[in-house]
Amino acid sequence: xxxxxxxxxxSMPDFDEYIDEIRELWDTHWLTNMGVKHQELxxxxxxxxxxxxxxxxxxxxxxxxMLLQVMKLEGEVITTPFTFASTTHAIVRNGLTxxxxxxxxxxxxxxxxKIESLxxxxxxxxxxxxxxxxxxxxxxxxxxxxRYGLKLIYDAAHCFGVKYKDNGVANFGDASMLSFHATKxxxxxxxxxxxxxxxxxxxxxxxxxxxxxVDELHVKxxxxxxxxxxxAAAMGICNLRHVDAEIAKRKIVYERYMERLDGVPGLxxxxxxxxxxxxxxxxxxxxxxEVFGESRDRVYDRLLxxxxxxxxxxxxxxxxxxxxxxHFDPKDTPVALKISESVLTLPLYSDxxxxxxxxxxxxxxxxx
Length: 368
Ligand SMILES: *Cc1c(COP(=O)(O)O)cnc(C)c1O
Fold this sequence. Notes:
By secondary structure, the chain is an alpha/beta fold. It has helices at about 15-20, 25-30, 35-50, 60-70, 85-95, 140-150, 200-210, 230-260, 290, 295-305, 335-340, 355-365, and strands at about 55, 75-80, 95-100, 125, 150-155, 165, 165-170, 175-180, 190-195, 215, 220, 265-270, 275, 285, 345. It contains 12 helices and 15 strands. The strands form 4 sheets. Strands 1-9-8-5-4-2-3 form a 7-stranded mixed β-sheet, with helices on both faces. The mean pLDDT is about 95.
């Protein structure tokens, strides 16, 4: 193949649709600080996601970092190392200690059966990740959190529009963070949200993203600045109109990969989870070099030589980052370590041509 294919391509509305959406901002000159677009997007997302409460943020990371802050956690937080840097950094930047739990072989989410042995009297929360849009074992996790009196906070960055038993996935746990980054299924260029069902969180989140300011005379918390601006919100309003069509197109691409790669010895393809309505965010493939005949790294290099940019998501484990050197041992989570060394996420976006999917699969299967 001789064209450049990136792992993802941001969804955008038609230029004119966006221009129409932002035109009134030139009348009001109200560009940020919870303006009309912010309010409208918040309302529409609540309806779309089926969540009782939602606060918008400038990005997913700040949403998670500030959510952990208002939850007033202390000590240790049990989480997964098989994730994007953001999850672990948000914990550490709150002065908390991440305790890494291993993941499940089949869907790569945190292994609920291994959590209890990690709980100490310092544990205050569990922060699992619905990685690749795969839904965690939400019932088991709720049960553990309740029995030990722990907060349960989900990184649902990959999960926009995913449902479990007909319930929007952001409804599980005490709260969930969503990311609307340009590379995600739904984007506001940069953006994010916290979804919650506890009304008390609404004000806390609202204040913390605006310096803790309650009114002109009262500053209640040591907040920061993580407000979503009107241009980002307007992008979200436009993209939300098309997101179902985008997900439907992703499904076609995803199914083509399944068709081409299913049954190939040595390849592990994404699982289908019972009761889950997917959003087709990612297509992770795990390579068993013994059986497939080639390592993940080798396949990655061959794809790159053809202009195809797959990603080694999530490698390295966050517990192996150099900024955490000496603090954690990636070997404590052997399943996560093995998966991180053998997984490749293939290009997947709504208008990836099926011929390109076929071409990518041919390169993979050609072997060296
Ligand atoms: C994208 C992502 C985030 C952070 O979201 P941003 O909007 O980019 O700040 C957090 N966690 C995971 C798992 C992600 O993939």
